[in-house]
Amino acid sequence: MGVRILGPTFVHGVLRRTMFGHFCAGETVAEIQPRMAQLQELGVGGILDYAAEAKDGELPEIENVEKEAEEETTGAPRSARMYDYQGERVCDANAEIFKDAVRNVREATPDGFAAIKLSGLGDPRLLERMSTCLVEMARLFEKLADPDSSSQGGPQKPNNLINREVKLDYETFKKGWTRFFAVEREEELREAFLQIDSSEDDLIMYHEWSTSLKLSEINTLVRTCRHQGPLYKAALDAKEVQLYHNMIARVKGILSLAQELKVRVMIDAEWCDIQPAIDHIVLFQQREFNVNVDHPLVFNTYQTYLKGMNTKVLRDIERSEREGWKFGAKVVRGAYMVSEREKAEKRGVESPICENYEETQENFHNAIDMILGRPDTEILVATHNRESVERTLQKMAELDVEPGRVGFGQLLGMADHLTFTLGQHGYRAYKYVPYGPIDEVVPYLIRRTQENSSILGSPGVQEERHMIGREVRRRVLRF
Fold first, then answer.
1. 140's torsion region: left (phi>0), alpha (psi -120 to 50) or beta?
2. Which of 255, 289, 320, 332 makes an SS bond possible with 297, Cβ 3.0 to 4.6 Å?
3. Are 47 and 266 in contact (CB under 8 A)?
C-alpha cells in the first residue's frame, strides 16, 4: 500500500534506513560484503539466509514430473519464509537460490553457514504425508512390542513421546506383525525379521527398524494391512515417490556444492506436521556428507520447546556414534509455540509443546549439556538469553570442551551485547543474516516478527529492552 501511494523510491529509502537496514545485510552479495567484513573484524561470522523466492520468469524446466495442480496448502502455520507450493519448477528455482546462498557464504563469510528450509524444495503436502507415514511407523514399532494391548489406547502421544526404547524378539515381532498384517508363510516373516536385525543379535532395535524400512517401500507393505488406518492412508504412491526423489536430488545438489566449497549448511526446523520428514531427510544427508570429515557439513535443528526432544537428541547422537558420522546441531527453543498448541487443541490431541517457559528452558539446557558431553559433536547455541550463554560457557569449562566445537548465534540487529562480546573473547559467534530484494525481505521480517511474538516476553528480550531503555535515558538526560 505504501509503495503504491508514496512510490518505491521513497518507501524503499525509508526502509533501508530503518527496519531493513537494521535487520538485513543488504540486497545482493556485493551489498552484504561490507557488513560481513565489519562483523568479521569483531570476530563474528554469518549464517546467511536468502529471504526471497523464485519468480515466474526465473523458472527452469522440469523433466521428471508433470505439472501439478497448484492448490493451496492447508493446515500449516506461518513460517518465516512462506512457501506456497507452485509446482516442481518453482522448487527447482528455489534450489538454485539456495545454491547462490552457499556461494555467497563462501565469498562473504567463509567460516559461516548457509541456512535452508526444506519446505522450499518440495510440496509441503508431500512432507506432511511423509511425516504421517514416518510417525505411524514409529507407532507401529511401539505396538509390535505390546501385541496384546488395545490399538485404541486414548489420545495419541506426540511424536517425540512415542516409546522407541523397546526391543523386539522374534516371537513378539511375529505376534504383533500377524495382528496388523496378513502373512502367507512364516518363512517370509522370519526372513523379514532377519533383514531388519542388522546386528544379528535376535533383537530388533528402533534404529534398525527405522533404517531398514524405506518410505518408497511402505506402499507395498500396507497392501497386506488388515485394517486401513493412518499408515495405510499415508503410504506414498508412485507419483509421490518420484516427487520425493526429485526433492532429495535438489537437497543433494545443494549439499554437494556446499561440500565442494567447504560451506556448512544448517537445515531449519519447521512446523510439527512436516518436521519428521525433514529429520528423516537430514539424517540420510548427514550419513553421506558428515563422514570422513573433521567437522560436520550438515547441521540439523532441534526445537527444545517440544516435549521429548532430549530423547531425540540423544538418539541421534548415539546413531552418529554407531554409524561413524559427525553430529552437528543447532539448538533453539522454537518459534511455533502458539500455532502448535492451537492445532493440538482443535485436533483433540496432546500438545507437543512444553507446558511453560521453564520446561522449555530446562529442555534447552539439557540438550546443550548432552551434546557438549559427547566427543565428535558440534553445536550452535541459538539464543538471546545471557543466562543460557553464560551457562554454556561454564559447562564448556567444566568439561574442557574445545571452543571450536561450539558456536553461538543471534539474529542480526538483536542481542549485539552477546554476539560481539563472545566474538571479541575468541568464541565462535554468528549473526543470523537475512538478505535479498527489499520488496521480499520486508514481508519476511514482518512474518518473522509474528512468528517469534511468543518469545517477546522471555528474559533475554526483556533484558535487551531494559538495556535499550537505559541507553535512551542516558542520551536524553545529557541534554
1. alpha
2. 289
3. yes
Question: Grid coordinates in use for 204?
Answer: 530388533
Cα angle 243-313-260, degrees, rounded to a multiple of 5 = 55
Alpha helices in 145-294 (DSSP H): 170-180, 186-196, 206-212, 218-222, 230-234, 238-261, 275-289
Between CA 312 and CA 315 the distance in angstroms is 5
Q: Which of 453, 300, 440, 314 is nearest to 12 (CA)?
A: 440
In degrees and rounded to multiples of 5, residue 255 shows phi and psi of: -70, -30
Buried b (16+ CB within 10 A) or exposed e, 392-428: bbebbeeeebeeebbbbbbbbbbbbebbbbbbeeebb
CA distance 124 to 94: 14
Whether the CB-CB separation of 73 and 85 falls below 8 Å is answered with: yes
Q: Phi then psi for 339, rounded to 5 degrees?
A: -65, -35
Q: Closest Cα to residue 121, out of 112, 130, 110, 108?
A: 130
Nearest residue to 118 via CA among 24, 255, 217, 239: 255
Q: How many helices (H) and strands (E) does the chain have?
A: 20, 8
| Cα–Cα distance, 61 to 19 (Å, whole number) | 36
What phi and psi, each to the nearest 5 degrees, are found at residue 300?
-95, 160
Q: What is the pTM of this model?
A: 0.85
Q: Which three cell numbers stand for residue 350?
A: 496432546
- Tell me how far apart the alpha carbons of residues 291 and 323 are, in angstroms, rounded to a whole number: 9
Contact at 8 Å (CB) between 119 and 272?
Answer: no
- How far is residue 333's CA from residue 303's CA, in Å, rounded to a whole number? 5
Are 202 and 169 in contact by the 8 Å Cβ rule? The answer is yes
**pLDDT tens for the chain, residues 1 to 479:** 444 454 455 555 556 666 777 888 788 878 888 889 999 999 999 999 887 544 434 444 444 444 333 333 222 233 334 434 568 888 999 899 899 999 999 998 989 999 999 998 998 889 999 999 999 999 999 999 886 665 555 568 899 999 999 999 999 999 999 999 999 899 999 999 999 999 999 999 999 999 987 888 898 889 999 988 888 988 998 889 999 999 999 999 999 999 999 999 999 999 999 999 999 999 999 999 999 999 999 999 999 999 999 999 999 999 999 999 999 999 999 877 888 999 999 999 999 999 999 999 999 999 999 999 999 999 999 999 999 999 999 999 999 999 999 999 999 988 999 999 999 999 999 999 988 888 777 776 765 565 555 555 555 555 555 655 554 455 445 55
- Stated length of the chain: 479
Amino acid at 41: E
Classify residue 324 as left (phi > 0), alpha (psi -120 to 50) or beta: left
